[in-house]
Design brief:
It is a single chain. The protein is an alpha+beta fold. The radius of gyration is 16 Å and the shape is globular.
Length: 140
């Protein structure tokens, strides 16, 4: 499966008063990393691929994280993001935040590809992942 890597510097806005990353900020980092993975795989921005595939996106249906080492203001980390499972309309992603090569945080997501419900425009419903997206996420 395709893996994407992002270099990230921990900024003050990510941290609590002690200068340690406040745990909800990791989930924002994970969300940004999921978008970066899709943009790399599809060769277009999120705005472009949402329009191209007539989708509303891929909302989260399950998430969790495991915290191993603290990260602090000024730390340079690498976030590795990979799709670990693809089903008809859902997919799972794992994120690894590495600090000086060591695992600091591991995140897990399950997301669902969705579109407007044709029977009720106020609702969304799962939609099968397009075959070309599946092929690109599986990698070369």
């Amino acid at each position: 499966m395709l893996t994407n890597r992002r270099d990230v510097r921990i900024v003050w806005g990510d941290c609590d008063p002690a200068g340690i990353v406040y745990y909800p900020r990791y989930f924002e980092m994970f969300d940004t990393s999921t978008t970066a993975l899709f943009e790399r795989a599809l060769g277009m921005t999120k705005y472009q691929f949402l329009k191209h595939y007539e989708t509303l996106g891929y909302p989260m249906v399950d998430t969790r994280a495991r915290f191993v080492l603290p990260t602090r203001y000024g730390d340079d980390v690498v976030i590795e993001t990979a799709v670990t499972e693809i089903k008809r309309s859902s997919f799972s992603i794992t994120h690894k935040i590495l600090k000086e090569g060591a695992l600091a945080v591991e995140g897990f997501e399950t997301r669902v590809w969705v579109a407007r419900d044709p029977d009720d425009a106020d609702k969304i419903r799962a939609k099968p992942l397009p075959d070309d997206i599946v092929a690109k996420l599986k990698g070369p």
